[in-house]
Amino acid sequence: MFTRDERTAHTARRRPPMVSVGREEDTRKVQTAVLGGPDGHRPLFLPYEKQAAAQLRQKHGSNAFTCGTLLGGCGKLLTLRACDDKKSHFAHRPPVRCSRTALGESSADHLYIGGAIDKWLRKQGQPNVSVQYVKQKGARSDAIEVRFGSKKKRRLIHVQMARRSFTEWQADGQRLAAPAGKPSTIRLYGPESQLAPFELEVTGYALRFRCRTENGTRVVHVGTHPPGHQVTWTTLDKCRLAPAGIVTPWLTETPYGLQPKGVEPPRSRVDRPAVGPEPEPASDGASEPQASPLTGPVLPLTPGRVAFTGATLLSEANGRRVYDVDAQPLGSALFRARVSLPVSTQTLVSQHVYVLTQEAVVLEGPQGTGPASRWRLRAEGLVRLPVTKAAEWELLKPAVPVEKVPVSVATTSGPQQKPASTARAAEPDVQEPQAGRTPGPTDVTPAPDDLLIAELGRVLVRTARERTTITWYELLKQTGTLPREVSEARQLRLLTTLDAPHAKARRPLLSSLITFSKQAQPNDTPPPFFRQVLVGLGWPHWTDAAGAADVWRDHRQRLHRAHLTDRRVVGSSTGRTAAAASEERRTASRLEQDALVPLAAQVRVLLQDAARAGTTLTWGDLRRRLGGALPYLHPDDQGELLVLVDQQTRADEPLLAALVTGADMSSHGLYRHVRHSHGRDRVPDESLETDWQMEVFRLYQLWRHR
User: With 80 as the cut, is the pLDDT of residue 141 above it?
Assistant: First the structure.
C-alpha cells in the first residue's frame, strides 16, 4: 500500500513526459487520404460513421492511408480514427509538420474527377489515357489534364477546378488550343471554378463537374449548362465521346458542333471581331457573288476551295485571331473578307497565299455595299500554297516582300527586266527592278535595323511627351517605313533591341506606347507581340496575356507621368496656356481621402474573397473585377488605399494587402510601406520575400472558413 504522497510520486513517474510543440498530436479533422503512398492518386473518403470507418481500416490495414502530395499534403502516414462521439477522421502521426489546408470531404474531388474520366475513357475504347494534376495557385492541384488517343490524334480534356479571372481563362484557352489538324481541346469546369458562364458565351453551353457523398464515397456527376436554363446533372456512364466533344443526354450533334437540345445556337463571341461588320459581295466557294446577307447561322465551304492573301491582323481574343484578307473561291470572283482562325494556326504573312481547309464556313454575308463591306468567315485550319498551286487563284496578287530583295539587285545596272508573269511564277517573294527606272515603293531596299531603331525611338519618345499612344502602322508611317518592309520576326527584333537598355536600367519600355487602333480592339489590350517583347527582354516565359497587359499599362503610365513632370518643369520657365495647365492638373493629381475610403471598402471585399479562394490579385485584376470603379491611381494613392484596406485588421492577423502582388506574382513594392504604416515589426530586406509568403499562407488558412 502507498501513502498519498507515495501514490502521487508513483503516478508522476508513470506519466509520459510532455512533448514539444513539434510533437503535439494532430487535432485537425482530415476526411480524405490517398492509397498507394505519398504520390498516390487513388483517393479515399472516410465515412463519418464508426462502423463504416472501422470496416475501411479492416479492408486496407492501418498503414495504408497517406496525406498525399496531390492533396497538398506532407506525404506522411495517417491514422484512421473511428469515433462514436464525433465524426470519424484521419489524424497525422506525431511529429506533426504538415501545411495541408484542404481537409474536408471535397479536398480530394480533383482526384475523384480525374479517376472517373480515366475510367470512362477506357470504357469508351480510348488508348493511352494519362491523367495529370496541374498546380496553378494554392495548395492543391487546380486543374486536371487528361490526354488520350493515338500519338497522331492525341486529344486533351482540361478540367478547370480553381477560380480564374476572365483574362486568365482566355490565356488558358490560347495555351490549350490544339495544333492545326489536331482534334480540339475539351474544356470542362469544376464546382469552384465559376468559369462556366464564360464558356457558355463562346460555345452556347458548358459542361461542369461536381462530387456528392453517396454510400460512403464521393460520386462524380457531370452537368449540362445551357443558356438561360438550370444545370442538369447525370453520371459519365450516360455520356459518350464524339469528335465534337462529350455528348451528354441533353446535348445533340449538329453539322456545326454540339448544341443544347431545344436551344437555338447562339452567335459566338469568338467569331465576332472587335470592329463592326464591313462586308462586300462574295461567293460561297463555287457560285457567283451575292449582294444580300446570308440566311441561316452558317454556310459550310468546301475545304480547299477558298484561298486568300494580304492578311492583316485586326484583333486577338478568346483564343482566336481575326484578319482582314482578300479572298477568292476557286474559279469565281475576288471579294474582301474578315476571317477568324485559332491562335494555334501558323502566323500569317501578308505576302503569302493560303487556302482554308478544316471546318470552313461563312458566318455572315455583306451588310452593305462599297469598299468597306466584307464577308465574315471562320475556319479551324489552313495551309500555305506553293507558288505553282497559288497560280490557280489567278485574281489573288500578293504583295512582294521587299525585305528579301538583295541590295546587289537593287543597285545593279544593265538590263534586268523579266516578264512579270514569268517572274511571279518563278519566285513570288523576290522582285527585280527594271533597268533604267527609279525604284518604286515595292522595290526600295529597307532601312538598316540600326537606323530604323533610332527613328522608332525618336517617334515613341515624342509620343510619350504628348502623353498619348500610337498604333504600329502609324509608327512605321512616321518613320517613313512601309508595313510590308517589317515582318513579324523583324518587328520583334527591332522592339527588343530598342527597349533592351530600358529594361536593363529598370525604366519603362517605349514599346508599351504601341496599341491597336480603337476600331480594331477597343478593350485597351496590348498587341500580341508585346508579350513576345517582354519574354525577349528577360521576363519569365510563363508570363501570360494578363500579366503582359498589366506590365503594358503600368509602363505606359510611368512614361506618361515621367514626361508630364518634364513638361511641368519646362512650362514653369516658358509659360503655359491656362487650358494646358488645367489639363495637366486634371491627369497625375491625387485623390482625396473621401474618395479613397469607399474604394478601399470594395478592394477589401475582393481581397477577402481572394483569401478564401487561396489566390492573389494584381492591380490589373482589381481594376477588372471592379468593372471600372477603380481608376488608375498615383503610386502614393495606391499605398494609401492599401493602408485603408487593413484599417480594421487585427494586430495579430496578417494584412490583406499582402494579397496584392506585382505582375510577376511576387510581393508588391508597397508591401513594406503598408506594414510600416500599421506598426508591424520591420523585416530585413533579405527576409522580406519569405515573410510575405508566410503572411499569404496565413491568410489562406485564416480565411478559408470565414
Answer: no
* pTM greater than 0.85: no
Helix, strand, coil abundance in the chain, percent, nearest 5: 35, 20, 45
Q: How far apart are CA 381 and CA 116, in angstroms?
A: 32
Q: DSSP strand E in 47-96: where?
A: 78-81, 89-92
Alpha-helical regions (H) of 575-615:
578-587, 593-613
In angstroms, the CA 415 to CA 545 distance is: 52
Are the CB atoms for 68 and 38 separated by under 8 Å?
Answer: yes
Q: Say if residues 164 and 193 touch (Cβ distance below 8 Å).
A: yes
The reported pLDDT for the residue numbered 283 is 33
Comparing C-alpha atoms, which of 212, 214, 207, 208 is closest to residue 191?
208
The Cα–Cα gap between 180 and 342 comes to: 8
Out of 316-320, 452-456, 534-538, which region has the weakest mean confidence (pLDDT)?
316-320
Residues in Cβ contact with 118 at an 8 Å cutoff, skipping those fewer than 6 apart: 129, 131, 146
What's the pLDDT at 582? 42
Q: Can you tell me the distance from the alpha carbon of 661 to that of 607, in angstroms, rounded to the nearest whole number?
A: 11
Q: What is the largest CA-CA distance in the chain?
A: 129
- For the segment 192-243, what is each residue's pLDDT rounded down to a tens digit? 787 777 787 677 788 999 998 887 788 999 999 887 667 889 999 999 998 8
Q: How remote is the C-alpha of 107 from its chain's centroid?
A: 25
Lowest mean pLDDT segment, chosen from 156-160, 227-231, 491-495, 653-657? 227-231
Q: Where are the extended beta strands (E) located within 385-473?
A: 470-471
Which residues on neighbouring strands pair with residue 207, listed in sequence order?
Answer: 224
CA distance 385 to 320: 22
